[in-house]
Amino acid sequence: MGASMALTETTSADRRDWQPVVQAFVDVLGDNQVVRRKEELLVYECDGLTSYRQRPAIVVLPRTTAEVAAAVKICDRNRIPFVTRGAGTGLSGGALPIEDSVLIVTARMQKILDIDYDNQRIVVQPGVINNWVTQAVSGAGFYYAPDPSSQSVCSIGGNIAENSGGVHCLKYGVTTNHVLGLKLVLPNGDIVDVGDMPESPGYDLTGVFVGSEGTLGIATEITLRILKSPESAQTLLADFNTVEAAGKSVSDIISAGIIPAGMEMMDYFSISAVESVVALDCYPRDATAILLVEVDGSPADVEASAQTVKDIMQQNGARQVTVATTPEKRLRLWKGRKAAFAAMGKLSPDYYVQDGVIPRTQLPRVLSEIETLGQKYGYRVANVFHAGDGNLHPLILYNNAIPGQLETVEALGGDILKLCVDAGGSISGEHGIGADKRCYMPQMFTDADLETMQWVRQAINTQGLANPTKLFPTPKTCGEAANAQSVTFDTIERF
Fold first, then answer.
1. Residue 81's CATH number
2. 61, 166, 278, 453: which is deepest, by most CB within 10 A?
3. What is the pLDDT of residue 243?
């Protein structure tokens, strides 16, 4: 999506009399839960993808399922599009408002409703911050596995919408692997419950909803699986002279039959940024790449696995391998990785991050080609990513204040996504599609695939009011890339 196609601010009052709508929201939510002053609406005009902005017409802040349902019914009755927003940390424009829309913000829904240690589950509202879940259960020896880099600020509702991952998703899976049940407000305002029951024949409605980016409704109560804390864990940090050597270590570790809890890689640019900002003094500044590997389990298994991992990294040319065995030292090694995105502001006024996935065996080749693409376009590309499952996060460093740079880095980001698909991967691992990557959906899916997906959306989101324009290419946003949506396929069997 080029900057020229970015949504522009408009005055919705010219098209609709908003006063009766505002009053309807005030009647069901209260005056202090409805935001309509222009200067206050500015807070909500973008999510973590700050390059694109659009002011919503109204923002509402419900606190309960009933209030969410009431707000959605007002939108349904008046045919007003609505976008759901959690903490606003998303990186694909999934919570970007659209023109003349209502933004339903779940940030005030912050209650932990129930904890069941016997059955290893916790029920939370969508505004609960990811890290709060682990904090709530850690005293009893449990934790919540999905841990995005933004876990101290991102909300569970947003994690559900985007099917978020994290540094420990290699062994324990992404968000969908930890969602047991959902209470949903559908786009017409109906309240339904899905999941949280023994496996049975039929549609996996929980699986359909997780990762749907607010296009199928709003999760208002979420039942999550919590895990017993591992008996033992060790974190290893190795530094290398080449990215290729670090990438080969990743493949060799997996080939040895070891599935680490986490396996992350950072290149020279990201190492330098982290040490400049966080000042951990544990990431060697002269390294071309570092590899962070964590193994957990029983003490005997951890000792054996850690030794094997260390041997493999040294065989591949690791200059030094640091082993952290205490929680304090392990957290110190991980702190830099968690702060990597934020630290990039030290190197560049802006960055544009992508989220492609490739097979692990393709890491050395793809990383080399990304470097070549960066040189071709004339921009530095920093790489910090989930190496174990091939989930790349190339950060293109640029200055948005210089006209034309955003359009250029978008083109570079698009070429990186195409490279991932050509290597046998995908255009997204955990950041979602949103507004940013919708134009690239035809790179990965056939026309029939895209139409089938939209049948599902239309079956639930019948009026098309829930987060319209996201996920799928449209003529307005993507030009010719939208042909997949505009074509009908008479030869395809309907169901």
1. 3.30.43.10
2. 166
3. 86
pLDDT bracket for residue 12 (50, 70, 90):
very low
Residue 199 confidence (pLDDT): 61
Query: How many helices (H) and strands (E) in the chain?
Result: 18, 18
Is residue 8's pLDDT more than 50?
A: no
Which CATH number fits the domain that encloses residue 355? 3.30.70.2740
What pairing do the DSSP bridges indicate for beta strands 191-195 and 82-85? unpaired
Who's near 482: CB < 8 A, 6+ residues apart?
A: 439, 473, 474, 475, 476
Contact 182, 222 (CB under 8 A): yes
Q: Percentage of the chain with pLDDT > 90? A: 76
Domain span at residue 286? 232-342
Q: Mind listing the pLDDT tens digit for each residue in 28-78?
A: 999 999 999 999 999 999 999 888 899 999 999 999 999 999 999 999 999
Give the strand pairing for 179-185 and 142-143.
unpaired
What gap in Å lies between CA 233 and CA 366, rounded to an integer? 31
**Structure tokens that stand for 379 in this block:** 């921009």
Per-residue model confidence (pLDDT) at position 7:
37
- Token code pair at residue 184: 């949903």
Q: Give yes or no for a contact between 22 and 36, defined as CB atoms under 8 angstroms apart.
A: yes
Q: Are residues 86 and 122 in the same domain?
A: no
Alpha-carbon gap, residue 179 to 206, rounded angstroms:
8
Return the minimum-mean-pLDDT range out of 146-150, 254-258, 277-281, 349-353: 277-281
To the question of pTM greater than 0.85 for the whole model, the response is: yes
How many independent structural domains does the chain possess? 5
How high does pLDDT run on average in the chain?
A: 90
H helices of 9-137, in order, are 18-29, 38-41, 65-78, 130-137
How does DSSP classify residue 361?
G
Q: Is the pLDDT of residue 484 over 60?
A: no
Give the model confidence (pLDDT) of 445-479 as tens digits.
Answer: 999 999 999 999 999 999 999 999 999 998 666 75
**Residue 222 shares a structural domain with residue 240:** no
Q: Which residues contact 116 (CB under 8 A, 6 or more apart)?
A: 122
What residues have CB less than 8 Å from 161, skipping those under 6 apart?
A: 84, 86, 90, 94, 211, 212, 213, 214, 219, 432
**Residues 29, 67 contacting (CB under 8 angstroms):** yes
User: Taking the chain, what is the end-to-end CA distance rounded to the nearest angstrom?
Assistant: 33
Cβ–Cβ contacts within 10 Å for residue 119, how many? Answer: 10
CA dihedral 12, 15, 17, 21 (to 10 degrees): -60
